[in-house]
Amino acid sequence: MTTARLRSDEGSTLPIYIWLTTILLFAALAFFAFGQAAFARNGAQSAADAAALAAAQEARDELLLGLGDAIGTDDDWLDWLNLPVDVDIPNDGPSAAAQALAADNDATALGGAQREVVDGYLGFRVAVRTNYTVGNSIIPGTENMQAEAEATAVIKPRCEFDVDADPTKPVDLVCDGEPVSVDPEDFDPDDLPDASVMFSVRLAE
Prior knowledge:
- Strand 5 and strand 6 form a beta hairpin.
- The N and C termini lie far apart (74 Å).
- The protein has one domain.
- The protein has 4 helices and 7 strands.
- Helix 1 runs antiparallel to helix 3 (92-104).
- The protein has helices spanning 2-70, 78-81, 92-104, 195-198; strands at residues 107-118, 121-133, 146-157, 159-160, 171-175, 178-182, 199-203.
């Protein structure tokens, strides 16, 4: 009687074990799927951040070239140091830089780099899509699903100068703590410091 009862109990608990094992296996696969999606999203965000920074850095380099051309020929050259948001910068360079950095991160910049104004500063927004997919999982469709993300980088001026400075005469600047003297009458663009000294580039909050 006792032996028969034990066999009966063992038979009734077997389906429970199978059911629990199935649930645990499904939960593990679901967790893995969410991990795959998170990995893809993180990859997309990293690519977007890098692409936006590259676009803004390229624009910053072009800003320095424009400033060098303006000194000695444009009495409003000091305005370049205040970085007006409507400053004339072709979008080709920043967009190409964004595409290149996105490609380095196995992604594609959608539409290149788009100019934006962020808190009064010139910025560049880049949206990217990963070239890879989330991958096969228990969630239908993930094998064809690509991650997307966007980021914006802003350019901020780093140079300080006397507000009453005469742009036609020598001007003393302090750029990120570094003294810079500019004489419009005797100016060589090579005398300007690196663009990173005069303008900062950061991801927008």
